[in-house]
Amino acid sequence: MVREIIIIGSGAAGITAASSARRADPDARITVFTEDTDIAYSPCVIPWAVEGAVAWDSVVMRNPEHYAREKRIEVLTQKRVDSVDDSARTVDSAGRIYDYDALVLATGGKVFVPPIKGADKEGVFTVRTLQDGRAIQSYAEGVGSIVVCGAGTIGLEMAMALSRLGKDVTVIEMMDQVIPRIADKDMADPIQAYLEDRGIRFVLNAPVQSVNGDERVCGVTAGGMEYPCGMVIFATGVRANIDIPRQLGLDIGQLGGVIVSPSLQPYKRGRIVPDMYAAGDMIQCMSAAMPGPTMSQLGSSAVRQGAVAGKNAAGGRAMYGPVASPWVSVIGDWEVAGAGLSQGLASWYGADPVCGKAEGFTRARYYPGAKRMTVKVLAGKATHRIMGAQMIAGEGATGRIDWLASAIMSGMTAEDLLVHAENAYCPPTSMVKDVVISAVEDLCGKLK
Fold this sequence. Notes:
Layout: E1 4-8, H1 12-24, E2 29-33, H2 46-51, H3 56-59, H4 64-71, E3 73-76, E4 83-85, E5 90-93, E6 96-99, E7 102-105, E8 109-111, E9 124-126, H5 130-140, E10 145-149, H6 153-164, E11 168-172, H7 185-197, E12 201-203, E13 208-212, E14 219-222, E15 225-228, E16 231-234, E17 238-240, H8 243-248, E18 258-259, E19 267-268, E20 271-272, E21 276-278, E22 283-286, E23 293-294, H9 299-313, E24 327-331, E25 334-340, H10 343-348, E26 354-361, E27 372-379, E28 386-393, H11 397-409, H12 414-420, H13 435-447
Parallel strand pairs: 1-2, 1-7, 2-3, 7-21, 9-16, 10-11, 10-16, 11-12, 18-22
Antiparallel strand pairs: 4-5, 5-6, 8-17, 13-14, 14-15, 19-20, 22-23, 24-25, 25-28, 26-27, 27-28
């Protein structure tokens, strides 16, 4: 009998789940529902497409016709799922009922827009889909000053892109630093200073209170002050899209995501829901850095989760373990990256980490083009286990943060890393002793 697999959502988790299910079951009937018009793209590229560094047409890697022709997967775009009945195992979309044997929920996240006056005015945008990005690019052509609400990585990438288009950009952030929560202030401040040197203004410790204007935006009020502008972009973080999980009565964790088992099956009143799986920005998973839950709302995490959920929905057996959530962002000429916990996140878990830090270069200091690099590594005071890392570099951050993420995942202590770690050396690519090693040496000295 042919297995009916339905997947709700066409982001990285949903599309990967569909492909994974097809590999696991060549005969299954697989249907993907999505409210989006585009599929198989990374929203992370939007700032560079807005800037013009990447063509919009090149961003979409596959279309529904490709999946129908090459993988026999039916992708239904602009199709909203109104409800799911897990007892009858049916999905309702615009009054039409679809039966399923296995269901994957991959509804992603929603940009959080503060419930403030004027947020629905013309000239207010969020950054989530390609449609959002195209609309931002088009509207920005007619304005000179833009306010970006939110100084996370997406907000800073957007600010840089708009500044390069010649716009007057102000970034407003309710916290006292840029890249809050995932980066520590001593690592975030140099990025802010770099952007300020390029003409971008920052307003910190200022929650947005209203968007002003008649029908169109003319300014923003934040922290009691008004900032004139012709356009507002909210990059104020992503919340799990749990409309369907709430309708189903699934268990929601303290971080606002769906609680799942290692097989990525959700729970209802503490019991696993059979033949249902969840993946992507909507789920809460376990941290590898510290016992407890975390949200890993990254494209790389979504792909791994989608592969597990899709395989299991097709009758396979796969598990998803704890995460270190390595991330990297390119902001102008700088790369900023992290993995595991920052000091702020560590305090949420009740931890008080010890920190080591080092500065150096991405290449041999005498080699042309060598760029500065700062690395910070965190470890547990009692356990000495590495629980987090951050870095700022002119190049080469991705490989180095992946290295430290692996150390977190394997439960290495700082001393273990010094015993077992080796770095490749060539003057055009690294110092003979990498800055990561120097930062861990500093950490070990402080742990003693």
